[in-house]
Amino acid sequence: MINNREDVKETPDEQILSMLKKTATYELGFRTLMVKYQERLYHHIRRLVTTHDDTDDVLQNTFVKVHRGIAGFREQSGLYTWLYRIATNEALSFLQLRKRKSALSLDYGDMAIHEKIAGDVFFDGDAAQARLLTALETLPVKQRAVFNMRYYDEMGYEEMSKVTGTSVGALKASYHHAAKKVEAQLKEEPHTETPVRTGRADGEHRDIYEREK
Amino acid sequence: MKEKNEHREIRDELRQIAPGLSELKREDGFTTPHNYFKEFPDKVLVKIATEEQKPASVLTWLQSLMRPRFVVAFASVLVLIVAGVWYSRMQSTSDPIVSITQDEALEYVLDNLYDFTSDDLISSGVLTEWDATEISPASNEEYDQIIDEIIQQGNGEIIEVLF
Prior knowledge:
The structure holds two protein chains of two kinds. By secondary structure, chain A is mainly α. Helix content of chain A is 65%, strand content 3%. Chain A has helices spanning 6-9, 13-20, 23-49, 52-69, 79-104, 113-118, 127-136, 141-151, 157-164, 168-187, and strands at residues 197-199, 205-207. Chain B starts with a helix and ends with a helix. By secondary structure, chain B is mostly helical.
């Protein structure tokens, strides 16, 4: 039985791919792959789609697509790069679909990011993190994905290029522009003087726009 | 070592372009329900098993045909189907009378003059009942004369009706 033990997360990609090539070890290999990469992919997707429920859907679809496509994986790029690309595409497709749907009706997808965070029991960040997420929401979605890859995941431009299919120069320009824009947003005062209260899984609430001491 | 250098480069780069941003901690603050990651692999495997038990939809079937190894075969079959339909329609819409020239029609009439009865000539409007009575039974010379008259009138439609 596979669980989230650290040694499972340390399984080399070559070993995972080897298990995935044999019917007898396929399920074990696929479980190992999920245990190793699910958290990183979860956070990558969550930063794009924001809510836990949406992230859960997108992450499940990502791994279903990985299962369907793993036989055709040519190992020209690293396994994580390939997974990351699938997850990014799934998240961007989800956002496009949500945008089309929200054009037809007013629903949760139309809520501002700070409203989503305020009502999200699965957000435990501080005021600065909440403000950063709010600032990121002002970026075009693909630029936000680029920023996240570099800022949160500390990904090199070459790897980002493999994920996005965009040139290194274009990615560099996109990231620099995004970082400056986000910084300018953070320097501005928060949109509301009234502190937004976050819900927490443990039932406690607190202000997220409180001034940092 | 290489990875550490890369991370340092990334942080230095950010410090230069957005110093305020570089001071923030790089965590998003998002959490998950209790045991979410422990249960997640099972959830995905159940989903995969459920989807694989479903009969393939028409869309899925069409998508499978678009895989690279099937594309050439699929395209060949498609071309054959289109060609077959086109040929079939050409066959059904082509009129043998329309497709031959007036000279060819004339030649046919002359070669098969005795195949045309006086009734054919009357129904086509070439002859009246009276004309037919007058010339029947007609000699070969008389028939030739009648056909010559038709031709001289230049009425191709009449010749077509004779067929």
